[in-house]
Amino acid sequence: MLRFLCFASCAAFCAAQSDRQPVATPPAPSFAFLTTPLPGMPKMPLPAYEVSEAMFELGRRLFHDGALSRDGSVSCASCHLLASGFAHPDPLPPGIAGQRALRHAPVLFNRGYGTRQRWNGGSATLEQFVLEPIADPREMGSSVDAAVRRLRAQPRYWKAFTAAFGRAPDAEGLRRALATFVRGIVAGDAPYDRFLRGEADAMTKEQRHGQWIFESKGGCWRCHTPPLFTDERFHNTGIGLVAGQPAGGHFEVTGEPGDLGAWKTPTLRGVRLSAPYMHDGSLPDLETVVEFYARGGNPNRHLDRRVRPLDLSPADKRALVAFLRSL
Predict the structure, then answer these.
(1) Is pTM, for the whole model, over 0.70?
(2) Which helix (H) or strand (E) holds 19?
(3) Shared-domain flag, residues 62 and 152
(4) How far apart are CA 83 and CA 89, in angstroms?
């Protein structure tokens, strides 16, 4: 039913073999993704300011530099690991002084296409989102002003900021450089996309069966909408109940009771890499995620009407997991 939709282009994927299913392997971050959409992907919306490759490369350096944290021990990359799909393998990633973040690290794939950021939607723009961990006492435990002072103490950053912005390190340059780098973290052109483009052997028979489940009786596409595989909205699935009652979620932003326990729909791009899952990291693997939705989530008074028990056989569930690994 959705076969008319085509999606993005990425780096290599694992070739179909008799003993191994094709899986998605996203590409390394690249500035090119900001200006040249991957095949099948929409054009990326860009900010009002002009972006440049110098900004992207500065952002890459800053993303991996502990200098943004109070004691130099935590960088953006500490919580958003390449090997974990730019998420983290722990339910709650480690921050400064042995502390833990309040929520699971959100995947950064395709955030340049996002309309709101963070699990609760608390960041209206990517530019706002990238600076918030610096001042979070559980994450980097610093302030943006203090981080800028540390950058100004390093001659290499004077040179890099001057190349990118024509001025010394400052908060606005830090914001723009990090946001530009994150926009270059893109996933697409997975086996699924290549199958849609006519490569018949890009997906196995089991993965194609999983695609059918995803698009038909599973109804997964309604929230995980192609080509980004997220609707950029907020839904209560029953994850994170407190004493059986919904808590937090988009309610923290809107104050609307109906938004209690409604958390951001994450992208499924590269999802095989980013376990554990959900805003609290409470589901350890894709099999557990499929079982959770098959039973209809966790009942509560604000449960999204789309979340209901599904009539899935064991073979259906295995196929759906196989399909997810092809994204």
Answers:
(1) yes
(2) none
(3) yes
(4) 9
